[in-house]
Amino acid sequence: SLVVLFGATAGAYGAKLGSDERELILLVWQVVDLPSKKVGTLHKSLVKADNLDLSDQCREVSGLTPEGLGKAEPLDRVLQQFSQLVSSDLKVLGRSSYTLCTDGQLLIRQVLHPETSKKNFLLSDCFYSFYDLRKEFHACYPSSAAVKDQTIKTMAEYLGLGTDETEEDFGVWQVKTMVAIIFSMLSENCNHVFTEPETVKYKYETGPCLLWLFFFFLCSSKSETVDSETVIRARGLPWQSSDQDIARFFKGLNIAKGGVALCLNAQGRRNGEALVRFVNSEQRDLALERHKHHMGSRYIEVYKATGEEFLKIAGGTSNEVAQFLSKENQVIIRMRGLPFTATQEDVLGFLGPECPVTGGKEGLLFVKYPDGRPTGDAFVLFSCEEYAQNALKKHKEILGKRYIELFRSTAAEVQQVVLNRYMSTPLIPTLPAPIIPVIPPPYTIATGSIRDCVRLRGLPYTAGIDDILEFMGDATADIKPHGVHMVLNQQGRPSGDAFIQMKSADKAFMVAQKCHKKMMKDRYVEVFQCSGEEMNFVLMGGTLNRSGLSPPPCKLPCLSPPAYAAFQTAAVIPAEAALYQPQALLPTTRTPQASAAAPPTVTYYPAQAAQLYMNYTAYYPSPPVSPTTVGYIAAPPGAVAAAATATHTPILPQPGALVRMQGLPYNTGMKEILSFFQGYQYAPDDYNGLIQLSDQARSVLQAPKEWVCL
Q1: Which fold has domain 325-423?
Q2: Is domain 209-315 in CATH 3.30.70.330, yes or no?
Q3: CATH architecture, range 2-199
Q4: 333 partner at 20 to 30 Å CA-CA among 301, 383, 455, 480?
Q5: Cβ(128)–Cβ(150) below 8 Å
Q6: To 5 degrees, how large is the angle CA 394–CA 400–CA 402?
Q7: Model pTM greater than 0.90?
């Protein structure tokens, strides 16, 4: 038997059903006995939604009102009634089992499963298997329209059935017409058989994902080994989200086994993004319709991604990881902050008998650096949810003299973390590996105290260069070439700020007066006049607020990376690289005397990065990333030597003569650093020009030289 089911929500109707997260307000159904071609009673039930504000389309199409829905039962009660009434009708027809039949997949996958998941109650087994009438119709009538273009009305018209929807109530006509279509398909001319129902997975299957494909991918001439039409990127996830939380967000859609890969930053921490691989492109397309749906109080952005991206996150592994993940259907917990001397026995003793580890020591995986040193991270396998919950209760308990953090983890995260540490660099680093030399651009950021710039604050995060130019209106003609600079945060995303260089201070003043608090995409934008020096401070990583300027790290009186040195000569720059200069490569504010003495710095920037920042390039190209995300990339020794030869400027004789210190106490001063290096050979005076030093710092370095080291 089939149970023909139709439903509607308080929002979108038709092809967009469920895309707006609106709740179910109507269910209509009827039992159809296929062998005898008999039908049961047609039932119509209104559903009381938590939000009774109906969309205009819903009011127009359904004719329902908030007053009528206010008297209905909530969804859980309606579903109980559904099961009882279906069982009763089947008993009358002498049947005991049934399968649902719906018009397309949206009602089951995009409405019922997501809504019941959010409301924390389970659907009965019948909602995990159903027939898609559109697919069955196309299989029966191959010459009909494509499945995606089918509707109840077009199928009825193809068969010559009556299509006057006004004769019946909303929902009733749809179910009666679907029943008539099914009977036509069962006729002697077609003799259609319903054999392969659509299925919804009961739970997300964890496990190692594509264990060996990653290395095949590295060695293969193919660009991908995972279908890009099955992968999406979810952004904006709570940092503590697990793979099960993400699977719950996509409830109703079938995710491939081990298909959730949590993305990590360079420090091995989750960055709020995940790549998800579905079983086919149809499921992926349905997932894209959940763009900006909510996980708790946060909305999640959903975009297309590629198979190559998925492999980079989820495909890498080693023999050790493969063996660790070979035990499937295990709950994985990540431990962080372990003492470097911690042993397997120490970890097992910390967890205790109330949360036994699967396989004992075999269920532990310590993460190590390439030289074998421990990182303080480990992954642990548990055979059931109960043991994992007991382990999570030990979050921030003490082992030795350190508190230990425990989090839920995934197989993809295990692979990514271990491979990152094994390679000693991030799998997807902040910036890709150096490839081509970038020569200084022929333009510079303005400096000085002339207030010929404006600052835009409160921009929509989706705003691009074109939006800013449209916002500026006629004043666009007064913008200097290459004068629009987007300020990005440390994750490389728009911060809501931008700076614009105008041709004069008067033009900047007029723009600030005209455009201040003007609307851009439903948000008002504040516009302030500022100087090139103030703009330069912010673009180089400083802050500008009511309290004044807070200088960036490169402006503080301390040793600064050489990538912040000023460029002195303009040169021709390759066309493919000209539009993608990182902010750290642009000149900083320096006096003419200091600039004259500083040698040029050769900095490298990879060609692939051009593809990452296309949105921030237009006729007025904007540097793609803020300097806080770029840091600096040292050039190969040959490039440095070539630059030195060309300009006849003394430079360091060999690589490695500079050291970078990390992990300093925040109150560390110059004297503490010099004391730390006491006893090492000093650097000759000729090398001072390679580093930005204040006069005070230079005087200190020139004092007792026998204990200074660079």
Answers
A1: Alpha-Beta Plaits (3.30.70)
A2: yes
A3: 2-Layer Sandwich (3.30)
A4: 301
A5: no
A6: 65
A7: no
